[in-house]
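User: Fold this, then the next.

Assistant: Folding the first:
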Amino acid sequence: MEQTESTATSTDRHFVTAEITAAWPEVFPPGRLILPEFRHMTLLFLGNKKIPPLPEPSWKLPPIGILGEKWIFLPEETPRVVAAVPTFLAGEKELLDYHAKLAPKEKFLPHISVSRGPFDTKAWMEFTCHIPFFIRGVALYKSLGHSNYELLWEKKSLLPFEEIEHTADIAYIIRGENYHQLCMHALLALSFTFPQFIDYFKKIPDVNSIENIIKLLNQWIAEIDIREGIGLKAVSYHAKVETKETLEWTMIVDV
């Protein structure tokens, strides 16, 4: 979507966000949950100021991470919102650099609002989960009130993975600028459906071929299956890496 020059009226409220795709759980502690499609990371609140030209983010493949390991309550004095603080697995510096271009004088605390008050503070403080996420793009919105927004501009990221249809199996297109990133994004794809894979992000060694990645993933599938059972058999060794905007690998997982 092309960015357009715009001025704001006295009642308009504009803001720039990082758009979040996450494997949100179905059950949260008590509170007025924000709809998943409206959960975002605010990068810049413009209010009714004139909208400046917005830079595009520098990353080709987006920041990724885990949500749900820490919750904060904002504003601190009279909390009205519960927000998840991200633990980044990759891309944090690029996100911070992008925010610095948007708002060089503003302090930035990355967070994603998930629930509005009233909420059960104690239950949220004790609620720990591991929600994989990635930033699918940045966008400029106008607030229409009552949690409704009008999209004015967006710059989409190249997706780290996409699930595709495959007869009787699970299949994904995995993207990465190198083999390590391919492995990380393969884990991210699997963790969206099978959260047992999240613990393995810290165990990724140096990998220099798709065969190494497949061997590693199959080792982890076997470990999880022995430990607790999982509805996966193995990642197929019939694999080919193509060079497009990035490296692309069609990962087929036998179920």
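Now the next one, as you asked:
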Amino acid sequence: MFELDDIDRKMIDALRADGRRTAPVLAEMIGIGRATAYHRFDRLVDEGVIAGFSARVDPAAVGWTISALVLVNVRQGLWRDLREELRALPGVQWLGVATGRFDFLLLVRADSLEHLRDVALYELQQIEGVRSAETVVLLDEIDQSELPIWP
């Protein structure tokens, strides 16, 4: 693995803010030559630092107006077996395996409280091995995905 320098970090931050920026635009923003920008970009992709590009979609704009964190405990030793089953629940946008009091954290998007209720109380509880769950409805979200990731 190679070390990132300030130019790499600036390029990554610029692409995180707008992944459609071209190498010539990046070169001008960062103050490097176009050939250098193309080379740096290709290297960041080849090394897996930039893992892909996607569109950020506003959940509310597509009807997902309710968001909740669902904190799940499972029977000991079953986390590997249940990971895909939990990820496949309707509306699960993100899933993390955790340490501490809960085994999993799920970010669930729903179009109504009824949808969230069905996921949290019915579908989740039907999964064999789920011991308990706690649902925390989010009142607001602050998207920090465009902020620099460097200290």
